[in-house]
Amino acid sequence: MTGTLTGPITELTALLGDAVVTDRQTMIGYLRDHSLLSRAGDPIAVVRARTTDHVVATLTTANRYGVPVVTRGAGTGLAGGSNALDGGIVLSTERFDRILHIDEQARMATVEPGVVNGDLAAAAEKLGLWYVPDPGSRATCTIGGNLATNAGGACCARYGVTADHVARIKAVLPDGRIIHTGATTSKNVAGLNLTQLLVGSEGTLAVIVEATMRLRPKPVHSATVVSVFSSVVDAVAAVVAIRAVAEPSVVELMDTPTIVAVNEMTRMGIDDTAGALLLIRCDGPAAEIEAERCEQGCRGVGAREVHVTTDPAEGEALMEARRVALPALQRHGSTLLDDLAVPVMRLPEMIDAIAWIAERYHLLIGTFGHAADGNLHPTIVFDATDPDATARAYSAFDDMMNRCLALGGSITGEHGVGELKRRYLEPMVGAVELDVMRQIKHAFDPKGILNPGRAI
Amino acid sequence: MTGTLTGPITELTALLGDAVVTDRQTMIGYLRDHSLLSRAGDPIAVVRARTTDHVVATLTTANRYGVPVVTRGAGTGLAGGSNALDGGIVLSTERFDRILHIDEQARMATVEPGVVNGDLAAAAEKLGLWYVPDPGSRATCTIGGNLATNAGGACCARYGVTADHVARIKAVLPDGRIIHTGATTSKNVAGLNLTQLLVGSEGTLAVIVEATMRLRPKPVHSATVVSVFSSVVDAVAAVVAIRAVAEPSVVELMDTPTIVAVNEMTRMGIDDTAGALLLIRCDGPAAEIEAERCEQGCRGVGAREVHVTTDPAEGEALMEARRVALPALQRHGSTLLDDLAVPVMRLPEMIDAIAWIAERYHLLIGTFGHAADGNLHPTIVFDATDPDATARAYSAFDDMMNRCLALGGSITGEHGVGELKRRYLEPMVGAVELDVMRQIKHAFDPKGILNPGRAI
User: Fold this and answer.
1) A227-255, pLDDT tens digit by residue?
2) pLDDT at A37 (0 to 100)
3) How far apart are CA B248 and CA B4, in angstroms?
4) How confident is the model at residue B2, as a pLDDT?
5) B431 exposed, middle or buried (CB, 10 Å; 0-12, 13-18, 19+)?
6) Which one of A44, A454, B70, B333 has the fewest CB atoms closer than 10 angstroms to its CB?
7) Which residues of A touch B410 (CB under 8 A)?
8) A46 beta partners
9) Which segments of chain A have a pLDDT < 70?
10) Does residue A288 contact residue A223 with C-beta atoms inside 8 Å?
């Protein structure tokens, strides 16, 4: 076994030198993503690619030897999709990280896959432009990883997910051939949509080595609305009312356990007898008009308190409460962070189910998320050193997934299927559909070396 | 040959009765789409499907016998993609046309493929909702055809194309298996994006039998801006200026030959010494603010005349000029309508090239289109009974395609590749990419019965 496995690594080291790491100590940092209960394997090497040539060499060698390859960006994934595989190569893009070009007039940025989301956003902002997708991990996550998982964020409510902001992708196929997908035009219907097929494919079809992302003009006006409700059900009623009359860019929800945890950590002094908090942001030339409509929507369903500000600094400070929701909950134990999406009208039922599941399994579940998209992150807080608590956490997770499916929901709104949710994929998409997906994978990757056993 | 070919039709007639048509006179209406210079074959039958079962029976029979199947909606295509194939079956969805359900709260409509775009829009409007995609042929074209070609329209400037408004698709594979793609949630990243793969695949992968389309609230406010320019170059400069400060839903361009033709037909009295006309619509709560910014953008680059109205009826009347552009040009001869897209910044070069090509081949070319998307429809007007003129029209078409490619454009923004543009596909997307597309087709359609030789 070892005899055959030293072959590819010896060859790769000859080709790529110190980009190939086999030292156990260094490799430890590349074994896992940020998910808690996902399995990670024992890889034979980590390749820290810096160029397309490095990726081509890695894939052609791995393909020849039939060695599995897991591509990872910053490892901020939450579904185990970039965890190492036994006997595989971890292909890291963290050093493949230059912003190649920003075309101000065309409003597009061409980047290598390891560019950090926040770095791209900052570079765009200097030019008065805006890279919109803003996953919670934007300070560290990479554009390559964002594309692989079709990452979302808070601004999706109005502006859509990563998929809605990509113009072109350059990617390497397992046999080393390079493809360029998409176009820099606004509209293009020539041929099959390979771009949208690669987005969200979680490293199973090809390795992204370059992407051209669309930017928007930075909105000049914004307004923030904070509204406190007696119950999550009231907050969801407000979301429904708001969606009918306005198009806010951000509509974030936090429930009581989340509010309590955030208060404890930040001393923000949010009313923690509240059943729920909505944080809403409107932008664009009608920001104030829209914020007023949101305020009315909240008051109309009996909000306890509503505060509106057009001061950007105050708005940012208010949004901070949502941003620290996960770290605040993590102070209370290990967290199993879920990511589910239901039709907005089914949010009350999903939220009822979460409360019921928390009670059933005697667990703290803090729920926050992107309410206008019906995308929730119920976060199970438990003691991972206690086998019984861990078993209850798993059961609660399972019950939430099943309830989500029964409500016509999606098992993942923005984190991906990865390792963690594979068993829910077929119940969601169907057996024939999964077969079609696997046939497509086979068309790209006939030897099945790219992230095998993951996502699909 | 006839012996083997009567097999499938005899079987299908036994299964589907009068849904199967072999009468030559009736079949004539199903041979061609609206494109002029595309080739159409001689089919063995037309199946006018009314149900999913009809489609399943047609595909399984055709697949067993290896008979090609061309699916068509209303036949309003402009690239020959739904023209009949020799020895094939034309599968028409025109009678498969019920609006199954409109969910007002979730703002989604579930329809059969033969539902006419305008009928869906009208049904939505009765509920205060808006089905956005508005191709020029919306009075007759079908949602199935819109999905197959990823049809655009005027409102794409702000709201995107058909692909941006579809939640779920139900489709039949060539072997008769049924797939459901997508989700009714706002966000969903579970598995590969089969929905976006089917959209724009021009009937080469599967046959769409049902679709759930997203609706928006009907905007309450709108404002229309009409601006007259001395030259197309000035008009494009205005488009660039406008894009930086506003997000109009419609930005339509017409050049002098188009203005002259429209005036002749409608007696609208547009200044036909103008080099170009822009028709702009803004909507939403900031409609007036945005319209004012558009007006300033036009004046800033030296527009001859700018007129703004917030009266919806007047706005509609002004937009009519653009809507009749093609019929107005068609009064002057046969028309070869092109559909190309360039990055907006390259519009001046593309428009210069069109003028130069018109001069070179002594042809009238009227150009109109969706300026904010860089999507132009240069329309070659010529005498199709004159072989020399026809040859020059072909050459001009070819020159425009090549110039578009050289400018980094797309060979089709919204009409599709079909029959007409196949030879430009590989130069645009690349040989490896085309190979990948064909491998994907093979995964769906191993016997190659679905629209063979078209699109990819």
Assistant:
1) 999 999 999 999 999 998 999 999 999 99
2) 79
3) 57
4) 45
5) exposed
6) B333
7) 183, 185, 187-190
8) A21, A90
9) 1-6
10) yes
Spatial separation of the C-alpha atoms in residues B454 and B419, rounded to whole Å: 5
Question: Distance between CA atoms of A158 and A283, rounded to whole angstroms?
Answer: 10
Q: Which of B184, B104, B110, B191 is nearest to B143 (CA)?
A: B110
Name the B residues in 263-292 with CB < 8 Å from any A CB: 284-286, 289-290
Report which residue type is found at A118: G
Residues A89-101 as b/e (b if ≥16 CB within 10 A, e otherwise) read bbbbbbebbebee
Buried b (16+ CB within 10 A) or exposed e, A379-397: bbbbeeeeeebbebbeebb
Strand order in the sheet with B89-92: B20-21, B45-48, B89-92, B69-72
* 303-362 in chain B: CB under 8 A from chain A: 341-345
Q: What are the b/e assignments for B228-258, b being 16+ CB within 10 Å?
A: bbebbbbbbbbbbbbbeebbbbbbbbbbbbb
Query: In a 3-state reduction of DSSP, which class is residue A365?
Result: strand
Beta strands in A57-165 (DSSP E): 69-72, 89-92, 99-103, 108-111, 129-130
- State the Cα–Cα distance between residues A262 and B263, nearest whole angstrom: 66
Cβ atoms B337, B379 nearer than 8 A: yes
User: Strands A89-92 and A45-48, how do they pair?
Assistant: parallel
For residue A161, give the nearest of B106, B187, B342 by CB distance. B187
| The pLDDT of residue B346 | 94
Provide the pLDDT for residue A36: 82
Task: Choose among A81, A68, A80, A92: nearest CA to A174.
Answer: A68
Q: How far is it, in rounded angstroms, from Cα A249 to Cα A251?
A: 7
Q: Is the pLDDT of residue B1 over 70?
A: no
Chain B: residue whose CA lies nearest to A408: B184
Residues 131-150 of B with CB under 8 A from A: 149-150
User: What is the number of other CB atoms lying within 10 angstroms of the CB of residue A331?
Assistant: 11
SS3 category, A404: helix
Task: Identify the three-state secondary structure at position A207.
Answer: strand
Instruction: Kindly indicate the confidence band of residue B64, based on its pLDDT and cuts at 50, 70 and 90.
Output: very high
A22 CA: distance to closest CA in chain B (Å)? 32
How much is the pLDDT for A84?
98
Which chain A residues are within 8 Å of B177, Cβ to Cβ? Answer: 432
Does A421 lie at the interface with B, CB-CB under 8 angstroms?
Answer: yes
Q: How far apart are CA A96 and CA A144, in angstroms?
A: 10
Contact B360, B408 (CB under 8 A): no
The pLDDT value recorded for residue B6 is 61
| A140, A228 Cβ separation under 8 angstroms | no
Distance, in Å, from the CA atom of B184 to the CA atom of A125, rounded to the nearest integer, reads 34
Nearest to A190 by CA among B251, B408, B140, B133: B408
To the nearest 10°, report the CA torsion of A290, A295, A299, A303: 130
* B192 in contact with chain A, both atoms CB, cutoff 8 A: yes
- Gyration radius of chain A's alpha carbons: 22
pLDDT in tens, A265-291: 999 999 989 999 999 999 999 999 999
Start-to-end CA distance of chain B, whole Å, equals 27
pLDDT score, position A1: 42
Quick: pLDDT tens for A316-370. 999 999 999 999 999 999 999 999 999 999 998 999 999 999 999 999 999 999 9
Strands A375-382 and B364-370: unpaired
Identify whether the C-beta of residue B166 lies closer than 8 Å to the C-beta of residue B111.
Answer: no
Phi, psi (rounded to 5 degrees) for A341: -135, 130
